[in-house]
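fold-stage: in
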Amino acid sequence: MAKNAISKPVAESRSRLGAKRRWNPDADVTEERRELKAALLEAHIKKVVDSLPPLSDEQRAKLALLLRPEAGA
Protein backbone atom coordinates (compact mmCIF):
# COMPACT_ATOMS: atom_id res chain seq x y z
CA MET A 1 0.00 0.00 0.00
CA ALA A 2 1.30 3.47 -0.85
CA LYS A 3 2.38 5.68 2.03
CA ASN A 4 -0.72 7.90 1.96
CA ALA A 5 -3.21 5.33 0.66
CA ILE A 6 -6.15 4.51 2.88
CA SER A 7 -7.06 0.95 3.76
CA LYS A 8 -10.06 -0.76 2.22
CA PRO A 9 -11.99 -0.86 5.55
CA VAL A 10 -11.44 2.90 6.00
CA ALA A 11 -12.56 3.64 2.45
CA GLU A 12 -15.65 1.47 2.86
CA SER A 13 -16.55 3.09 6.20
CA ARG A 14 -16.15 6.58 4.75
CA SER A 15 -18.29 5.58 1.80
CA ARG A 16 -21.12 4.24 4.01
CA LEU A 17 -21.06 7.36 6.15
CA GLY A 18 -21.07 9.69 3.14
CA ALA A 19 -23.85 7.80 1.37
CA LYS A 20 -26.07 7.77 4.45
CA ARG A 21 -25.58 11.51 5.01
CA ARG A 22 -26.08 12.29 1.32
CA TRP A 23 -29.35 10.35 0.99
CA ASN A 24 -30.72 11.25 4.42
CA PRO A 25 -29.08 14.38 5.89
CA ASP A 26 -31.08 14.04 9.11
CA ALA A 27 -30.14 10.39 9.71
CA ASP A 28 -28.37 9.30 12.88
CA VAL A 29 -24.85 8.44 11.73
CA THR A 30 -23.44 7.63 15.16
CA GLU A 31 -22.76 3.99 14.30
CA GLU A 32 -21.16 4.87 10.96
CA ARG A 33 -18.88 7.39 12.67
CA ARG A 34 -17.97 4.78 15.29
CA GLU A 35 -17.13 2.26 12.56
CA LEU A 36 -14.99 4.83 10.73
CA LYS A 37 -13.07 5.72 13.90
CA ALA A 38 -12.47 2.02 14.60
CA ALA A 39 -11.26 1.44 11.03
CA LEU A 40 -8.90 4.42 11.27
CA LEU A 41 -7.55 3.19 14.61
CA GLU A 42 -7.06 -0.32 13.24
CA ALA A 43 -5.15 1.02 10.22
CA HIS A 44 -2.94 3.16 12.46
CA ILE A 45 -2.19 0.32 14.86
CA LYS A 46 -1.34 -1.99 11.96
CA LYS A 47 1.01 0.63 10.49
CA VAL A 48 2.80 1.10 13.83
CA VAL A 49 3.04 -2.62 14.59
CA ASP A 50 4.33 -3.38 11.10
CA SER A 51 7.11 -0.82 11.58
CA LEU A 52 8.40 -2.42 14.80
CA PRO A 53 10.46 -5.51 15.48
CA PRO A 54 8.31 -8.48 16.59
CA LEU A 55 6.77 -8.03 20.03
CA SER A 56 7.10 -10.55 22.83
CA ASP A 57 4.00 -12.29 24.18
CA GLU A 58 4.24 -10.13 27.31
CA GLN A 59 4.41 -6.91 25.28
CA ARG A 60 1.41 -7.96 23.15
CA ALA A 61 -0.61 -8.82 26.27
CA LYS A 62 0.23 -5.48 27.87
CA LEU A 63 -0.82 -3.55 24.76
CA ALA A 64 -4.01 -5.61 24.39
CA LEU A 65 -5.04 -4.52 27.90
CA LEU A 66 -5.19 -0.92 26.68
CA LEU A 67 -8.05 -1.85 24.35
CA ARG A 68 -10.19 -3.40 27.08
CA PRO A 69 -12.62 -1.06 28.90
CA GLU A 70 -11.77 -2.45 32.34
CA ALA A 71 -8.07 -1.71 31.78
CA GLY A 72 -8.65 1.98 32.53
CA ALA A 73 -9.69 1.27 36.11
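fold-stage: in (second)
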Amino acid sequence: MSFLDYFRGSKKNTANVAKERLQIIVAHERGQREQPDYLPQLQQELLNVIRKYVQISDDMVQVEVDRNDDVSVLELNVTLPER
Protein backbone atom coordinates (compact mmCIF):
# COMPACT_ATOMS: atom_id res chain seq x y z
CA MET A 1 0.00 0.00 0.00
CA SER A 2 1.54 3.27 -1.09
CA PHE A 3 1.13 6.63 0.52
CA LEU A 4 -1.26 7.80 -2.23
CA ASP A 5 -3.47 4.71 -1.88
CA TYR A 6 -4.15 5.73 1.69
CA PHE A 7 -5.66 9.02 0.54
CA ARG A 8 -7.58 7.49 -2.35
CA GLY A 9 -9.25 4.99 -0.04
CA SER A 10 -10.31 7.65 2.44
CA LYS A 11 -12.09 9.62 -0.26
CA LYS A 12 -14.36 6.68 -0.94
CA ASN A 13 -15.12 6.33 2.75
CA THR A 14 -15.74 10.05 3.07
CA ALA A 15 -18.07 9.98 0.09
CA ASN A 16 -20.00 7.07 1.57
CA VAL A 17 -20.31 8.82 4.92
CA ALA A 18 -21.52 12.00 3.22
CA LYS A 19 -24.03 10.01 1.19
CA GLU A 20 -25.39 8.29 4.31
CA ARG A 21 -25.68 11.61 6.13
CA LEU A 22 -27.54 13.13 3.21
CA GLN A 23 -29.94 10.18 3.15
CA ILE A 24 -30.65 10.69 6.86
CA ILE A 25 -31.29 14.40 6.33
CA VAL A 26 -33.63 13.75 3.39
CA ALA A 27 -35.54 11.11 5.37
CA HIS A 28 -35.88 13.52 8.30
CA GLU A 29 -37.13 16.32 6.03
CA ARG A 30 -39.70 13.99 4.47
CA GLY A 31 -40.93 13.07 7.94
CA GLN A 32 -41.25 16.74 8.87
CA ARG A 33 -43.19 17.48 5.69
CA GLU A 34 -45.91 15.01 6.67
CA GLN A 35 -46.66 16.79 9.94
CA PRO A 36 -49.62 19.18 10.00
CA ASP A 37 -48.87 22.91 9.90
CA TYR A 38 -50.65 23.50 13.18
CA LEU A 39 -48.52 21.06 15.18
CA PRO A 40 -45.95 23.58 16.55
CA GLN A 41 -48.71 25.96 17.63
CA LEU A 42 -50.67 23.10 19.20
CA GLN A 43 -47.60 22.00 21.12
CA GLN A 44 -47.05 25.54 22.44
CA GLU A 45 -50.68 25.90 23.52
CA LEU A 46 -50.63 22.53 25.27
CA LEU A 47 -47.43 23.53 27.02
CA ASN A 48 -49.07 26.76 28.23
CA VAL A 49 -52.08 24.88 29.61
CA ILE A 50 -49.90 22.35 31.42
CA ARG A 51 -47.78 25.18 32.88
CA LYS A 52 -50.88 26.56 34.60
CA TYR A 53 -50.74 23.53 36.89
CA VAL A 54 -47.15 22.24 36.82
CA GLN A 55 -43.78 23.87 36.20
CA ILE A 56 -42.18 22.13 33.22
CA SER A 57 -39.71 23.05 30.50
CA ASP A 58 -40.31 22.90 26.76
CA ASP A 59 -38.39 19.66 26.32
CA MET A 60 -40.65 17.83 28.77
CA VAL A 61 -43.56 17.80 26.28
CA GLN A 62 -43.47 15.79 23.06
CA VAL A 63 -46.30 16.02 20.52
CA GLU A 64 -46.39 13.67 17.52
CA VAL A 65 -48.90 12.69 14.88
CA ASP A 66 -48.92 9.06 13.73
CA ARG A 67 -50.69 8.17 10.51
CA ASN A 68 -51.93 4.71 9.62
CA ASP A 69 -53.87 4.46 6.38
CA ASP A 70 -56.91 6.69 6.98
CA VAL A 71 -56.45 7.23 10.75
CA SER A 72 -54.35 9.93 12.42
CA VAL A 73 -53.40 9.63 16.08
CA LEU A 74 -52.18 12.57 18.15
CA GLU A 75 -49.68 11.37 20.73
CA LEU A 76 -48.84 13.62 23.68
CA ASN A 77 -46.05 12.66 26.08
CA VAL A 78 -45.52 14.82 29.16
CA THR A 79 -42.74 14.17 31.63
CA LEU A 80 -44.01 15.46 34.95
CA PRO A 81 -41.57 16.42 37.69
CA GLU A 82 -41.60 14.39 40.88
CA ARG A 83 -43.11 16.06 43.91
